[in-house]
Amino acid sequence: MPVLYPNYEVKRWTGWEWLHIYGLLTKDGGHRVMPCRFQHANADGLTLASGFIELDDKTPQEAARLILERLALNESKPKDFYTKSATEALPPPPSRPDYKPPPPRLKKFWATLLTVLTGIGIGIGVWRLTQDNPNKNSHIEIAKTSTRASYPYREASPVLSNFWSCDGDAKDSVGGRNGILHGGVTPTAGKRGQALRFNGSDGYIEIPNAPNPPTFSLTAWVRFDSLSSRSSFPGLQYVFFRKNSRSTNFDAFALAKKSVNGADHFILSANTAGGYYSQVVSATRVQTGIFYFIAGVFDGSWLRLYVNGQDDGSIYHPYPIDYGDRPMFFGSTGEAWDGRFTGLLEKVALYEGALSPDQVQKRFIEAVGK
After folding, report:
1. Which band of pLDDT confidence, cut at 50, 70 and 90, is reported for residue 89?
2. Quick check: is 152 in a domain?
3. Model pTM above 0.70
4. CB 3.0–4.6 Å: which of 207, 245, 265, 369 could bond 328 by disulfide?
């Protein structure tokens, strides 16, 4: 379900994405694509023959129903396969004669749409919309979750398996997996007590015999002293990294910072054993001299990124983590050429299991109060 906005032409992307979508529409499986738009928007390469669904006069409930009907047809099921069993979850739209849609309030529209769909067990991946960045267009990817639970997390009580306070060293006070300091890593005053400063050149921490949780949550306080990077990728600085079994596309998972469209953002990424790559880019723009409480969560189906207790982006990734035999690293990938972290790190916690949004927010509030 690609969605086109009136201001698409002024955004910073290349424009090729919509040509690619048009290519999908003209292939044998084009009926599986459901292009939508607001305010009769258009783009080069797309015509009226593309078959747009006009969202200006649709309620979120109506849009949800169309998505479910399209999903059922794509799976060779009766059109009402999902909507028939979701009557209670999909309330009827307002009476059409009395319904006068307001100007598109996109964030509210998508929030309501997601609430309806996730409530009946349909998982959604959305390019994050922010009111301070109206030039982003949006893309929705549909994927069924394994249950009809109101929230797709599978583990209600994640277990704290490791905790590195970074209080002058890299001792693990919970799991005993103590880290080894390399190069320019030095103690300093942090957000809450002591922290470790990484110099951005040869400083990093190695965690031997790191655990291999199938689902995980990783939280920490982090501050950047510089946004530049010695990497060939602009602004790339690794905060946490674990290698997979591959020689290329080799991150089992990584939580880092890099420059995207000229601004620095947090990223959470993962690669499968087959090289399938997924990446979440935060809505938050990273600045120097500011402490951020970051959390990267994988629940077996979704990669989720949180900044200061708030959901900052997610992507559907229904693949197992491919762990290699290398250590886990803080501030580096362990390779000589990579983008090293320049800044402060403290209170690193690794959980076996996926923290829910409420649990992430609770830990942020607790971390601020300590």
Report:
1. very low
2. no
3. no
4. 207
